[in-house]
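User: Here's a protein and a ligand (nicotinamide-adenine-dinucleotide). What would the complex look like?
Assistant: Let me lay out the input and then the predicted complex.
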Amino acid sequence: MTIDTAQLVAVIREVLAEHDGGPPRAAAPSTPRPGVQGDGVFADMDGAVNAAAAAAQEYRRCTMADRRRFVSAIREVMLKPENLDNMSVQAVIETGMGNAEHKYLKNKAAAEGTPGVEDLETTAWSGDEGLTTVEYSAYGVIGAITPTTNPTETVTCNSIGMLAAGNAVVFSPHPRAKNLTLWQVRQLNQALRAAGAPENLIVTVSEPSIENTNKMIAHPGVKMLVATGGPGIVKTVLSSGKKAIGAGAGNPPVVVDATADIGYAAKCIVDGASFDNNVPCTAEKEIVAVDAVADLLKFEMVKQGAYEASAEEVRRIEALVLNQKRTGPDTGWVGKPAAEILRAIGVEPPAGVRLIVCEVDASHPFVVHELMMPVIGLVRVPDVDAAIALAVELEHGYRHTAIMHSRDVKALTRMGREIQTTIFVKNGPSFNGLGIGGEGFPTFTIAGPTGEGLTRTRNFARVRRCVLIGDLNVR
Ligand code: NAD
């Protein structure tokens, strides 16, 4: 069956407009033009990297005020209502994953809140020997590999941080997000040109593929690699022999203990685990609840839009959404709405259903593996110590994200110390840890494996020391 894209956009737009005055509703999205070169899109990887290298050279001659202007131009073009609209709607259509309204929020947060040039703080020492400064300086060309799950958010966020640090960037998007990423790279190039930036500070290829990604990784013109994706690509960049940042997979557990405000915890978990249909790497992927509150938690979750699957329904969901080896999701079901999953197992979805909760044991694939869909396993444990221990086990040492609902400060502290994740959200939905509704800046590249954490401009820069002997110390 061929899908009429225009018709699909119209339907999604209508649904979004009905919902809560939801944001995306501007003019029809521009039609992506795959295969057409120009505006940062190149026919082959060699051409793309060479153009970015020339741009990086020219960029060195620009002032910090120029950089600030270019970063502002990126923010402005990505925040145009029709562009936010296009990215949110088209991402759902092209990747087949997620929720356009939530993608709108993520795209907006990335464009508004990603740190810029101000993140490059200089350190100085002055004294009898003179003056020494330590500055953040560009790498040159960065190769950035982006995921299907946050395709445009990652490009916006990486573009701001990498250009603010003085670099040019070559994007290697997931082939499933090709058209939208090409469109975005073109928009960014047009905006940068209008702001007077060197040509080709942001480039990509017209046919993204694993082969092209590998060419980019190996290209001598690329000085640093940043991989946002699953374990395979993180391992690949870390084995490249180049400076690399790896932002890899997670399996965030949410622990609920007996002291938690259960009604509030239930709302947070349903909000967080259904956000963008659970595709964010930070979203709650399994619940570990102490026995004393597990039933109440499920009851409250149902009030918030969750559907509790019976044991028989859990078996049908398993057969539908797991891969054949039961080692992860069937990619066809990643990021699909809860209602679609329920319909596919023969259950008429209740109005407004957002999440499917399945009580299972601790070895079940729904809690062991990252599903990235609004199906969440719940495991019942006797007490908070057992909950923390199981959460640590289910997080698999990814050091990514964990969430806990508790009013026991000692228990919260213990969980934080034991689980060692890059993000630990206490008493809120997971997306609060991304700078959406919580304090702190947003990012869509969370580097647990290499330790940068929530990446920011300074992570895309080299540290250089400049020493002047004997003078410029005025004390
Ligand atoms: P993915 O690993 O399938 O793809 C990510 C990118 O890597 C894509 O551009 C893909 O084309 C490329 N790629 C994958 N394998 C490759 C290989 N062998 N050689 C060359 N290129 C390769 O991931 P996805 O499905 O797009 O995204 C979901 C995964 O990413 C989840 O595991 C999620 O947790 C993780 N993720 C992590 C972060 C983070 O900041 N830590 C952010 C978003 C997504």
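Summary: The longest helix spans residues 178-194.
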